[in-house]
Specification:
The protein has 22 helices and 19 strands. With 548 residues, the chain is an alpha/beta fold.
């Protein structure tokens, strides 16, 4: 005989799970024990939203679902923000929430609340287990739903009486587990391939915009082959950075606005046409440009905010292979040499000017100087997590990424507090990689106690805080609730068992970072608290009619 909790552990093991993030509590205690009993690592956190955020980072770095668990009632409601973030960024997180007993529904028992309706708007699929014999089926469906088509989070509600109900193990049916090699990879039709080829043959100034779909489809190599075969300049969304190294000859980061305004063909690959790219619409983009799009989700193609000249429902890895083959001998880098040279010249001028700003010797430290020091310190394949307001926007401008999936940030949901949980989840997912978290001091406060999680679970990361004393820059001192003071987070970190250092001189940032690396190599979490200029505000494309 086995109880429901034990069946969950077995089901997760059969699905290939190797890790989950959680806080202990009823009715999930035995589920967590049983899962760890299957050899699956449990990382206990300090807030359930951080568990969901760590699962998010794990998913993005391992290209498989990240798993989080929570006890009933307020513990499960705490998951919602992290799950909603995963929904907004189309990331496969499987959230398992304990619930009050099924048999007592409506009787006002301990922590009774309808949890499913909270998750339905921010998941691809949500359900409740009423019979422990169905646990293998529903866990299996959770994996398929999370990874099928456009990825996203799912939620499974687990009543306490179901978790402790006994089942004859001989009567349990175990479905074949989710197999990533069997994921659907629909191709473009011959007609669609011909249409794209024809438009690229006639183009003078094309651009590629790619997103996280390249990562989920495991298509970085295919994208790079396509770019190098055609010579088309490429740009990515913030979450899709690093799919091709950003020092590639056809990458012109600082010429992005010019390229978008002047492109005559826009090829959108594996990303939504949402506010992040200005809906690919005027005035940010050329109104007369031809727009072509490849996406795994039919709803995305049907709901494009700008009329598509070609819309392909297809797997971007498969379609890129088709296009590379079809364009052979018809389009080469020579077709767009003049266009690239124009962008390269503009990019070089802006980079040269930017480097002078990045070397700013002023005190308090300018955030761009902090970004430069991190940029010149982090390993080429290091994982960079950036979270905050000003530092997030400065970081977009100043810190490149060279490895697919190794850049995490507040995403299109703009969630504050993700940085440290992302860093912890990233280190758990890839323990052999350097992990650096660059945090604003305001955003750090949301989940600061996850330093303790990193320490207790032996996950040595480096956290760098831009300490500008508040939520945003405020040179006119006119924003209500902006000021937070200049907290010595380094001392807080030391009290939790971390290596801590406080820096005020820009020339001392890099040495402090190298001492933090030494601490990491010795197995310690490190935090470098850098006093930055409270009046330095980043300029970025306006997403709304208001600003913070």
């Amino acid at each position: 005989m086995a109880i429901g909790s034990e069946i969950i552990g077995q089901a997760l093991k059969r699905q290939g799970a190797d890790m989950f993030f959680y806080i202990m509590g009823g009715p999930m205690m035995h589920t967590e024990l049983a899962t760890m009993g299957q050899g699956i690592r449990g990382i206990d956190v300090r807030h359930e939203q951080a568990a969901a955020m760590m699962a998010f980072a794990y998913a993005r770095l391992r290209n498989r679902p990240g798993i989080c668990m929570a006890a009933s009632g307020p513990a499960t409601t705490n998951l919602v923000t992290g799950v909603a973030h995963a929904w907004a960024d189309c990331t496969p997180v499987i959230a398992l929430g304990g619930a009050s007993p099924d048999v007592s529904t409506g009787h006002g028992v301990f922590q009774e609340i309808e949890q499913l309706p909270m998750f339905e708007p921010c998941t691809k699929w949500a359900d409740r287990v009423h019979d422990p014999r169905r646990i293998p089926e529903l866990i299996n469906r959770a994996f398929h739903e999370a990874m099928g088509g456009k990825p996203g989070p799912v939620y499974l509600d687990l009543p306490g009486d179901v978790l402790y109900a006994e089942v004859d193990e001989n009567k349990i049916e175990w479905p074949d587990p989710w197999d990533p090699s069997k994921r659907a990879r629909p191709a473009a039709s011959d007609a669609e391939v011909r249409q794209i080829v024809e438009r690229l043959k006639n183009a003078k100034q094309p651009v590629i915009i790619s997103g996280s779909g390249i990562l989920w489809s495991e298509a970085p190599d295919e994208l790079q082959k396509f770019v190098e075969a055609t010579g088309i300049p490429f740009f990515t969304t913030p979450q899709g950075r690093g799919v091709i190294p950003e020092d590639h000859d056809y990458c012109y980061l600082t010429a992005r606005s010019t390229a978008f305004r002047e492109a005559d063909v826009i090829l959108v690959l594996g990303t939504r046409m949402n506010y992040i790219i200005g809906h690919a619409a005027p005035p940010r983009f050329n109104a007369d440009a031809s727009v072509m799009r490849v996406d795994i989700d039919p709803g995305e193609i049907a709901n494009s905010p700008r009329k598509l000249d070609v819309g392909v429902v297809g797997d971007v890895k498969t379609v890129l292979g088709q296009l590379t083959d079809a364009l052979q001998g018809q389009v080469t880098p020579d077709n767009y040499a003049t266009w690239r040279e124009r962008l390269r010249g503009y990019n070089s001028e802006k980079e040269e000017a930017a480097e002078k700003v990045l070397s700013n010797p002023s005190r308090p430290v300018h955030p761009l100087r902090l970004c430069k020091e991190v940029r010149d310190f982090i390993d080429r394949d290091g994982i960079l997590c950036v979270d905050g307001q000003e530092i997030l926007n400065f970081g977009r401008q100043a810190m490149p990424t060279f490895t697919p999936g190794h850049r995490l940030n507040s995403g299109c949901f703009g969630t504050m507090g993700v940085g440290l949980p992302f860093g912890v989840g990233a280190k758990a997912a890839k323990p052999d990689k350097q992990v650096v978290v660059v945090h604003g001091d305001g955003s750090f406060g949301f989940n600061a106690m996850e330093l303790d999680t990193a320490v207790r679970n032996d996950l040595p990361i480096t956290v760098v805080i831009s300490l500008n004393g508040g939520w945003t820059a405020d040179p006119k001192n006119e924003k209500p609730g902006r000021n937070l003071g200049f907290t010595r987070f380094d001392q807080m970190a030391e009290s939790l068992g971390c290596y801590g250092e406080f820096v005020e001189d820009p020339d001392e940032i890099r040495p402090a970072l190298y001492r933090a690396r030494e601490a990491n190599e010795a197995g310690k979490v490190a935090l470098v608290n850098v006093r930055t200029d409270e009046n330095a505000g980043a300029t970025t494309t306006a997403f709304t009619q208001y600003r913070t």
